[in-house]
Structure of Proteins of 100 residues with WXG:
Amino acid sequence: MSDVNINIYKLDAAKQAAQALENSITTSHRECKKLLSYVESSKWSGKARDAFLCYLEIIYQYHGDLKEAAALQTKALKNLDKYMDDFNRDSAVREVRNL
């Protein structure tokens, strides 16, 4: 079994990209909420409004899910540095390597 190799430069780039993605999704989610509130309070009515609201609500929910996933990804990448050494020292890992 081979060791896990992590290129620190690529890890740093991945952290930066993950943070940028998280920020972008958070901004998009916030803007979507503003648009949703605006449309709900507008005087616009009819089937087109209802269809647009349904579409916008789906987009808002989707962005909410993406926002949570992006935050987890960013957290995992930030914690990777801390846990790389712990992983290699873990008794279960040594046991698997000795199989």
